[in-house]
Amino acid sequence: MTAAEAPPAPTRDRILAAASDVFAREGFDGATVREICARAGANVAAVNYYFRDKRGLYRTVLSAWQAEAEERFPLGPCRSAAPVEERLRDFYRAMLNRLFLGAGEPRASHGRARVWLGELLRGGGMEESPQSQENYRVMDDWMRPLVQAVLGPVEGDRLRDAVDASLAQVVVHFVGFVSAPQVFLAALSREGEIERMAGQMTRFALGGLRAMKEDDDAKA
C-alpha cells in the first residue's frame, strides 16, 4: 500500500495532532475548537465525544507533549552508581534536552514551552495543573538523592532549600527560553551548547551544595 493509498488516521488522532499545532501556536486561550477541527477534518462535536471539551483536549495534548519529551530524553542514567557530578550533569542534560528538543527541534519546542509557562501562570498556577505538578514531582524525586549525596542525610527545610536552589537553574533556562527565544536559538545553533550549559549548571549546583556542606560541618 502506498502513502497515497494509506487509510486516514483515526479521528481522535487527527484532532490530537491538529490541537498540538494550534495550542503550541495560540496557547489555550487563543486556540479554538473550530480551528482545530477544521485542520483535523473533523466535526466539532468530535471534541466533546473524545475529550469532553476544549479543556480535556488541552490536558490530553499536554500529557502527550510530556510523554514525548520523556521518551526522547529519559532520565534513566541519573540513577546510576556514577559519581554525583556525573549524575547531576546527566540530570541537567536531560532537562535541557527536554526543554529545547522535546518537540524534535528548538523552534517547535519553544512553542510548547510558551504554553507550559502560560499553564503555570493561569489561574491557580501549579495547584491547578496536574501536568505541571507531575513535571515538578519528577524533578524533585531525582534531585533529592543527588543533593543528599553531597550534604548527607539532611531533611526538612535544609533539604528543601538545597533541592529548590538546584532546580532553580532549570526554571531560569525555561523562563529565559520563553522570554528571549532568539538568544537561545542562536546559542543552540552552536555544536555542544546543551552540553556546555549542563556542565555550567553542574558546577554551580555542586559549588553551592559543597558550601552548604561546609557550613553544616562547621556548625556540627
Can you offer a commentary on this structure?
- The chain has 220 residues and is mainly alpha-helical.
- Helix 5 runs antiparallel to helix 7.
- The protein has helices at residues 11-30, 33-40, 45-51, 54-72, 84-101, 106-121, 130-151, 156-179, 181-188, 193-219.
- It has ten helices and no strands.
- It starts with 10 loop residues before the first helix and ends with a helix.
- 28% of the residues are buried.
Summarize the structure.
This protein has 220 residues and is an all-alpha fold. Helix content is 77%, strand content 0%.
- Shape summary: elongated
Return the structural class. Answer: mainly alpha
Spans where pLDDT lies below 50 across 5 or more residues: none
Strand proportion, as a percent range, falls in: under 5%
**Biggest sheet, open or closed, and with what strands and sense?**
none
Radius of gyration: 20 Å
Instruction: Name the helix and strand elements from N-terminus to C-terminus, one letter apiece.
Output: HHHHHHHHHH
Helix content: over 70%
Described by its quaternary structure, the protein is single chain
- Average residue-wise pLDDT: 91
| Alpha plus pi helix count | 10
N-to-C CA distance:
73 Å
Q: How many β-strand runs?
A: 0
Helices, strands, pairings?
Layout (H helix, E strand, L loop, with lengths): L10 H20 L2 H8 L4 H7 L2 H19 L11 H18 L4 H16 L8 H22 L4 H24 L1 H8 L4 H27 L1
Name the descriptors.
220 residues, 77% helix, mainly alpha
